[in-house]
Design a protein that fits this description.
Chain lengths: 226, 262
């Protein structure tokens, strides 16, 4: 496929580097799955504390959320990787990878879950308390399942962003998928092939995740619900 | 709850025992900030008694009801259940509330759970009742309110009247000693009101102690042992339903009844 610059598209080049791309992909999957699971857990736990208006803890959570939502992810990654060693906290690329994604996604999910929990109609909790459930038990049996359903679409968006943002680790040369492609390009100049290849891989995986999220939403849809 | 539904008139109901107070409110005050909603309410509901609470909106009747299970903490005064002071320090309200069933205007069924799961949640989690036993009891209660075939339906798949009947059954699962009804037919389409009142009639005849905030004057007259008129945060008048409804002594009662009985 020659173009004006006399460029030849060589799909075989991609096939030749599949092994390297595969290990890069595995690292991408490793840091993003830990980051996604953590962001989910942090979101539910801190979102619950926040919505239950537990003093002190609630304000500390607000500080965390504000810091991580109002600074660029790239700066957060640099801070963890380059700045923390100055105060004696040295993390390797893998750790910074999942930890930065977890902290970033967690901050957004705290807000998603808090908003979901607070959107649950008070009458359901009241009915639960009238039956004799304690406040925490009513949260667990009513607010959590109903609020999580409300939060689900926005939580899904953040988790997909966590996965896509794993490519930011190129900034600390952690050899995940994007960094691997960049390194191959640096020695081969096969820019088009490499970025097409990883673009397709990211697209395919995000598409799969969206399908999965849709299935989860349908499974938990409230029968007869609006 | 073990009594079979009676087919006789209201007189077939076991007589209220005036010596045994089920619920007692003593000088109950309730304020929200500077707004005083209840200004000293004294009310005794005897075991087996059916008390209808009527009055204009904003008069405090729903607040009064919600003070009985302390869903609204009282600002002053005492609330007693079977002689036990619920307002005393150290009272475990979660345990106390198992003895007080409550039904709400908006039903408040848990929308993510089927009808039968709405019924079994509390006995299973709070009383550690085995799943099979809880389900068996739930199905029996759903049959009693005429909804045996809706056990696996979810609340939003049911009509308002059906939802309210499930909500009554849910409250009965805990074998409450007293039932509180908070305008339970007010959110229903007119043609669905009677199916809910039928269930309440059945319950009243089985000897259940009931405190009902209601706009159904016919129901109050038929089943109420006593009628309480609440206005301005106080009980302005009370007595036998027929007396209060036909010969109100209080001006405000007269005004209210003129509006609602047109």
């Amino acid at each position: 496929m020659p173009d004006a610059a006399g460029y030849h598209f060589e799909p075989g080049f991609i096939a030749h580097h599949l092994g390297e791309l595969g290990s890069g992909l595995l690292r991408t999957l490793a840091i993003s799955s830990i980051g996604m699971a953590g962001a989910l857990l942090v979101g539910v736990l801190l979102g619950a504390i926040s919505s239950l208006r537990i003093p002190v803890a609630r304000h500390l959570i607000t500080v965390y959320v504000e810091v991580f939502r109002n600074t660029p992810l790239l700066v957060q990654i640099f801070f963890l990787y380059f700045a923390l060693p100055d105060i004696g906290l040295q993390f390797e690329g893998f750790t910074v990878g999942w930890l930065s994604l977890l902290l970033w996604g967690g901050a957004y999910n705290v807000e998603n879950f808090r908003a979901g929990f607070e959107a649950v109609e008070g009458g359901y909790v009241e009915a639960c308390r009238a039956l004799g459930f304690s406040r925490p038990a009513a949260f667990r049996h009513v607010t959590l399942p109903l609020g999580a359903r409300i939060a689900l679409p926005s939580v899904t968006n953040i988790l997909i962003s966590v996965f896509k943002n794993s490519s930011f680790m190129v900034a600390i040369s952690y050899p995940e998928l994007t960094d691997t492609a960049v390194n191959i390009v640096a020695v081969s100049f096969r820019v088009f092939e490499m970025f097409l290849a990883i673009g397709v891989i990211y697209l395919g995986l995000v598409w799969l995740m969206s399908l999965g999220a849709g299935a989860v939403e349908r499974h938990y849809a409230i029968p007869g619900g609006h | 709850m073990t009594n079979p539904p009676s087919v006789d008139g209201p007189s077939a109901r076991p007589p209220a025992d005036p010596r045994a107070a089920m619920v007692e409110l003593r000088g109950v005050h309730k304020s929200y900030g500077s707004v005083e909603v209840l200004k000293g309410v004294d009310l005794t509901v005897a075991r087996g008694e059916v008390v209808a609470v009527i009055g204009p909106s904003g008069g405090g009747k729903s607040t009064l009801l919600r003070c009985v299970n302390l869903l609204e903490p009282v600002s002053a005064g005492q609330v007693l259940l079977e002689g036990e002071d619920l307002t005393a320090a150290g009272t475990d309200l979660n345990t106390v509330r198992r003895r007080i069933g409550m039904v709400f205007q908006q039903f408040n069924l848990f929308p993510h759970l089927s009808a039968v799961d709405n019924l079994t949640l509390a006995p299973r989690k709070l009383l550690r009742m085995p799943k099979d036993e809880a389900r068996k009891r739930a199905l029996a209660l759903l049959a009693r309110v005429g909804l045996a075939d809706k056990a696996d339906a979810h609340p939003r798949q049911l009509s308002g009247g059906q939802q309210q009947r499930v909500a009554i059954a849910r409250a009965l699962m805990m074998d409450p000693h007293v039932m509180l009804f908070d305008e339970v037919t007010s959110a229903l389409d007119p043609e669905l009101v009677s199916e809910v009142l039928d269930v309440m009639r059945d319950l009243a005849r089985s000897g259940m102690t009931m405190l009902c905030v209601t706009h159904e004057m016919g129901f109050a007259r038929e089943l109420g042992d006593r009628l309480v008129f609440v206005d301005g945060g106080v009980i302005a008048e009370h007595g036998r339903p027929a007396d209060v409804l036909d010969r109100p002594q209080n001006d405000r009662t007269r005004q209210f009844l003129r509006k609602v009985l047109r």
